């Protein structure tokens, strides 16, 4: 059982002061093995904070990020799964699942994690899963009118991943979960 | 050298004295063991003669004294046994007075007196009276102090207190109090006399020695406080007046300071509260050089803690009008002292403020009064150079924040900003950070423009470059941290009422635009977001009875946004401005404001052309342009065409071929919006794709020319995916043949190169096509037609 925290689009301090306290109290150091972040933190302070939750932090560049050294895309393997990470402003039309699927094919990953729209989605198609953890602070978005703070926790176990989404709605943390199973361990078709 | 010599000599004398002492003690013990009273007395007297020395410092004398104390305990036990064996205690009391020298005589008398009291053959009070009077025989300060200290020590458990075995008809606690007061008075007189002993040049040494002895005098007050019979009435009517009388009359600075403080620390706070008048009344009568400020501060601190821990006594504070009494007393003290150092005055007011906050938390006017008095003291003194005084001011100003946990209340104190003004710029920033931290921690929302204005005044150290000499540069990291905290603060400035909210952001705008260029990149973005959020909250045009004439309208806010963003490029933050313009364009799009949206796009394009020259930055910027433009539905044909044409132009002019290719095929999405039939132009979509293909080809050629190897086939696969995207949507111009020829092209290229990632990309694309075929229906049919 491997726990992966996926979050992003915090936009601190431009659009939000900080993560909601209810989220902060849940994100306890030592419980999570990996963090993948879709970008738009925007300041080093947040980067350091995430590192205290888990030192294995993977992050890609959002268009408002201060640190220019983050890369545009990243891929990593966790257990049986290959994960791809990209902020999402590079994939146009923004939020378009077909276009995101193309990126997924290009990176050749089972799970693609992107952000930018500040809207949680989890979409399964024949090539795999596209997950958007939304905005962890509920930051303003020109794309999405109604933003609730949200983040995703993935539990990777063998060929199965359970995606838990945590959303803060009217002051209460609501949890939902989605199951995904991978067909086999083969990486590319012959 | 002389001092060293004296030290050495002192050691010698102490050693000599101790040796003689020990010898006599040995003989005394031998006499005791053989029940020889006469010899015991003889040797004990000789032993005690060592205490007649003038050669020892208090510290060394104490050493000798302690030995004597121990030996005298043995003697006392012997006396007690003697009386049991039939010796009359009155006779014993007589006998000891035959000792030759007065000092040993008195020590022995006290010892015998102790036994006398224990036998209860006479009332305790009479014996105690006798002893305390007899001790007048020693007027030498050091010896007298220790002698009386001995008397105090051995009498401690024999005082006729309430509930003590020595209480009787004749003996009451009044007598006990009388005894202790008398001993105290005499001891104080001796102690004060030390000040004037010896040559003037040794004054410092004497004062140090006095300081070592002060607890001997203070102990008497301890004893008084511990007597059961000393209740509030006795304290108020007898003890306090007598002690204060002695303190005032002795006219000695050291004694006055120590004893005033002693009273405050030793007696219960409840008593102080009820005798506040008397206590404070003594203050102006003290010597001018006494540090009365510290005394008063400590008094107020004790009363504050008392109030904090025992909220049920708060009504008493009101009853005795503690606040006004203290306030007046402080005023008088400060008036009397012309040269009071700033630190003392500030500390006084700091303690008074803490007192007020704890005791009268609902009386903001009291707190304001205190601040006002503080300002009066500070004014006319110019800049404060004492760093401790400045730190004390920061503590003073932080106190209301900590107490109320609500900055809004602190904002109500009219004198608060005036006090803050007296800090230097570094501490103004420190204070500003304290205030912001309080707001963030307590999640205080500041909801009116007026309060925001007041708040900005308080934190102006962070908003503006103050008139400080340029030499003091703030550390960069600190500056960033400060400005980021200001940015976060902006999210706490919020009103539900749109009109009020607009006023708030206008206030912020005024302050930020005059705050210097370095701060803009931190302060403007959150302000922009606040404004954009406000637009969303505005009622629909139709609902608003005032329509566009309302004081707050979307148009007004867009104008506002323009004003603040245009300050950024020269900051210099052109990239930031560029991004914010596009955000505003999207907002205008949602409000159906075509001219405004067009204007924002124009500004963004200008910045792209003039300021964004780094090739990587251009790629991202173009992605943002195309991504935003793709979502615009507000533009009419002409405007849309102009903007699209420009975007295409930028795409083709990117430096690197692969970037060009990608930007161009991305532009294809500008010609096909799903939900807007007016923006569906298949012809131009195809043109984009073909153009992208051309660029990909030339990129391929260049790589083979320059490097000898053939380049990556990835671009072709990306283009193929785009073909499939539009083919699936049923665009007539994207034909089956065009798709098939792409596939063929890729297959050819693939055989020439070996690029594993490209291969897997192509493979997954084929898998995707197969999967779509399996879906059946319209989509399945279309994919069915493609021959791979």
TrEMBL record, chain A:
InterPro entries: Calcineurin-like_PHP_lpxH (IPR024654), Metallo-depent_PP-like (IPR029052), Phosphodiesterase_MJ0936/Vps29 (IPR000979), Vps29 (IPR028661). GO terms for cellular component: cytoplasmic vesicle; cytosol; retromer complex. Residues 4-157 form the Calcineurin-like phosphoesterase domain. SUPFAM superfamilies: Metallo-dependent phosphatases. Gene3D superfamilies: 3.60.21.10. It comes from the Eukaryota. Keywords: Protein transport, Transport. One of its GO terms (biological process) is protein transport. NCBIfam families: yfcE (TIGR00040). Belongs to the VPS29 family. This is Vacuolar protein sorting-associated protein 29. The lineage of its organism: Eukaryota, Viridiplantae, Streptophyta, Embryophyta, Tracheophyta.
TrEMBL record, chain B:
SUPFAM superfamilies: ARM repeat. Its main location: cytoplasm. It is a peripheral membrane protein. GO terms for biological process: intracellular protein transport; retrograde transport, endosome to Golgi. GO terms for cellular component: cytosol; endosome membrane; Golgi apparatus; late endosome; retromer, cargo-selective complex. Keywords: Cytoplasm, Endosome, Golgi apparatus, Membrane, Protein transport, Transport. It is found in: Cytoplasm; Endosome membrane; Golgi apparatus, trans-Golgi network membrane; Prevacuolar compartment membrane. Belongs to the VPS35 family. Plays a role in vesicular protein sorting. PANTHER family: VACUOLAR PROTEIN SORTING-ASSOCIATED PROTEIN 35 (PTHR11099:SF0), VACUOLAR SORTING PROTEIN 35 (PTHR11099). This is Vacuolar protein sorting-associated protein 35. The lineage of its organism: Eukaryota, Viridiplantae, Streptophyta, Embryophyta, Tracheophyta.
